[in-house]
Write a structure and sequence with these properties.
The chain is mostly beta strands. It folds into two domains: 3-318; 371-473, Sandwich (Immunoglobulin-like). It is built from two helices and 39 strands. The relative contact order is 0.06.
Length: 474
């Protein structure tokens, strides 16, 4: 049994806060025994701060509080006059699904002290300064979009958990800080990051305390750089960058002297037209070429080719890979189950570098194998091969002398019809195949046999014959 509280047009409550007050009335002092859902039934804008600091009910991973948009609706939480949106749910397990957070303010966060699962949400416009979207968030953030941001220090700070299949776009961003704050342990996988080339530096660890930061199968375009902390004290303790693409990035630094990178791994990445450098534990600034020539053991299987994104045009970027990208199957197994499009890796042990695993996969139905009948053209040279195949598909015929092991191309046509095969006198075998069915490999089991101007003997059709329908009649 689940419990439902509806908000908006046709719902039981006019505001989200009113629905949550009803939840407190019904459940105060108790633990949920099933999902409790607050569902927003329209696409209206709600200028509300959802503060859970005073509630007395308890939710669990098994029975969470769900705040969600109804199917087909896109409600907006407007933060124009608010310092934060969903806050102080540190001991409450939440699922936040399908909401848009919009408007600008001068500080705070959309999600603050939240534990649970955030999915299918959009965070847009951003804040004017300091921090940003997710502060002290524990759990999973997935399939979200962050765009039009103009902020300093943070898409997230002190996040513990996973950020996966999210799209970050900050064309107007000219300040610093994607991951500002290093006391979190965050795994970022199958995400894409698009900047304007003049800002948008990703500081992966600039908060006091130990942190573990992992970037896996992420795609970057036109960002100012992925860098270590720019101020002291030493913060980042472990950094792993696996299967990532850096395209037109002005600098890529994965460590810094004195910043206690106790473990640093850079493997199977593509650094393309990036003025990339890696700073090792001794503080040596080195180009990727220098490090590769030196056999630097934390830089493995990296390439510097053009990854061949589908589009790099500003405003219509598409960081999926073209079918001839050198990044296809060039990665290492990193445990990323789905790419940014929700597709699984065709080969999980050798996935693509970047956030896209599927590459122009042909999902059309292949044409059926054509059938073939043969007749002596009566001119002492040709066999008339009649092909019955799919319309619009090119079908081919091959032939060989009876008893030979070598097949010779005999001609082609589109769809059904006849092909005149110039075999010359003798007894011959023929078979037909389409451009996508049967291929140019071994012939199918049905082989058409025919003689041309043979002095003795005739061929008659026998559907039960082992030769596939024809036997010699002497």
């Amino acid at each position: 049994m689940a419990y439902l509280y509806t908000v908006g047009s046709g719902g039981d409550y006019a505001t989200i806060s009113a629905a949550l007050s009803a939840v407190e009335t019904d459940w105060g002092g108790n633990t949920f025994d099933a999902d409790v859902t607050v569902r927003i039934l329209d696409s209206a804008s709600y200028n509300e701060k959802i503060d859970l600091s005073s509630v007395t009910w308890t939710s669990t991973w098994a029975d969470p509080l769900i705040i969600e948009a109804a199917s087909g609706q896109t409600p907006t939480i407007d933060r124009t006059s608010l310092a934060a949106h969903i806050v102080n749910g540190n001991n409450k397990y939440l699922i936040i699904d399908g909401l848009t957070f919009s408007g600008a303010n001068s500080g705070g966060a959309d999600l603050y002290n939240v534990r649970g699962w955030v999915r299918n949400c959009t965070f847009q416009t951003g804040v004017t300064y300091f921090y940003g979207y997710w502060l002290n968030v524990y759990g999973v953030i997935e399939d979200c979009t962050v765009n039009n941001s103009n902020h300093n220090r943070g898409f997230w700070r002190n996040v513990y958990g996973w950020v996966r299949r999210c799209k970050f776009d900050w064309h107007s961003q000219a300040m610093n800080g994607l991951c500002y704050g290093g006391s979190g342990h965050v795994i970022v996988e199958a995400c894409q990051f698009i900047g304007n080339g003049t800002g948008g530096e990703i500081d992966y660890g600039t908060g006091a305390g130990y942190s573990l930061v992992v970037f896996k199968n992420c795609s970057f375009l036109n960002i100012d750089g992925l860098s270590g902390a720019s101020t002291s004290p030493p913060w980042v303790s472990e950094l792993h960058v696996l299967n990532c693409i850096f395209r037109n990035c002005s600098s890529v630094a994965v460590g810094k002297a004195g910043y206690r990178n106790l473990q640093m791994v850079v493997e199977a990445c593509c650094f393309s037209t990036s003025n990339g450098y890696v700073i090792d534990e001794d503080g040596t600034y080195s180009t990727l070429t220098d490090l590769r020539n030196a056999g630097y053991d934390t830089l493995k299987k990296c390439i510097t080719d053009d990854p061949k994104y589908v589009s790099e045009t500003s405003g219509s970027e598409d960081l999926n890979l073209q079918s001839d990208s050198p990044c296809i199957n060039a990665g290492v197994g990193a445990g990323v189950l789905k790419d940014i499009n929700g597709n699984t890796a065709p080969d999980p042990y050798h996935p693509a570098i970047g956030a896209d695993f599927q590459h122009d996969v042909d999902t059309s139905t292949p044409p059926s194998a054509p059938t073939l009948s043969c007749a002596d053209a009566g001119d002492g040279t040709n066999i008339t091969a009649t092909v019955d195949g799919d319309d619009g598909v090119t079908n081919y015929v091959k032939y060989r002398a009876l008893g030979s092991s070598t097949w010779t191309a005999g001609g082609s046509r589109s769809g059904d019809g006849t092909i005149s095969v110039a075999t010359g006198p003798g007894s011959w075998e023929l078979y037909a195949y389409s451009e996508s069915a049967g291929g140019a490999g071994s012939p199918p089991s049905e082989i058409c046999c025919q003689e041309v101007a043979r002095a003795a003997g005739t061929w008659t059709e026998d559907s039960g014959a082992a030769t596939g329908g024809w036997t010699e009649d002497t």
